Amino acid sequence: MTTASVNGITIGYDDEGTSDDVLVLVHGHPFDRTMWRPQAEHFSTNGWRVIAADLRGYGETTVVPGITPLDVFAADIAGLLDHLGIEKVVLGGLSMGGQIVMEFARTFPERLRGLILADTFAQAETEDGRRNRNDMADRLLREGMSGYATEVKWKMVAPDNPEAGEFVAGLMHNAPPEGAAAALRGRAERPDYTETLTGITVPTLVIVGSDDEYTPVSAAEYMSERVPGSTLVVVDGAAHMPNLERPALFNKAVEGLLAQT
């Protein structure tokens, strides 16, 4: 692991490969950068420099209690790129990571060569959703991560993939409750990114698991229909983590996107 001091925090990240072509991968909630190992290993040995960082509040990056809005996460990514002297990247994210990617596209469009939006959705949170996210944040602070991790394990990963399920469960059990709660409170206040999608001008891949209950195929179709020229890929037999459940299919779809950038 390498660390960088960015925006008043210490970010832990992996930086693999030596190419001038840079792929940055943003993890979801409540995970860390190791969820991207199948992609980091594959693409760093196939012509790309791959950067995967732990978000603020997760993994080996500083935990900041309270509320972490999506624009703070996006600014941290931009700050890390500045630290590394990187101007333009292909940026991909899954779930919350995909919403951070959309915020980055809204705020720093000039820094993008391409986008990957995996198992995510663009609309603002509903009133019920805001209440549920804040209630869950309270619960994580009160009880820790274990109960939540056990409950959602087989919604994150399809039940026929026990190896991926155990890996994802471990990520969730090990997440810092304060960081996860701060991210939940921030996502509860997220804006609607529909207008941002219509203004994207770089090659974009929208990818989703066929059995994803959190961000169903309809949510991916909504995004793909609004991003000009985007490609939609549905990964059969995967739930919310197709990059881990079906890595070969996921990587093939990403390869198609990278060839366009």
Strand order of the largest sheet: 1-2-4-3-5-6-7-8
Structural domain tally: 1
Helix content: 40-55%
* Overall pLDDT score: 98
What sort of overall outline do the alpha carbons produce when their principal axes are compared? globular
User: What is the C-alpha radius of gyration, as a whole number of Å?
Assistant: 17 Å
Q: Counting H and I runs of at least 4 residues, what is the number of helices?
A: 11
Low-confidence stretches: none
Strand content: 15-25%
Provide the CATH superfamily: Alpha/Beta hydrolase fold, catalytic domain
Name the structural class: alpha/beta
Under the CATH scheme, the architecture is 3-Layer(aba) Sandwich
Distance between the termini: 28 Å
CATH topology: Rossmann fold
Q: Biggest sheet, open or closed, and with what strands and sense?
A: 8 strands, mixed
Under CATH at level 1, the class stands as Alpha Beta
Protein name: Pimeloyl-ACP methyl ester carboxylesterase
GO molecular function, one term: catalytic activity
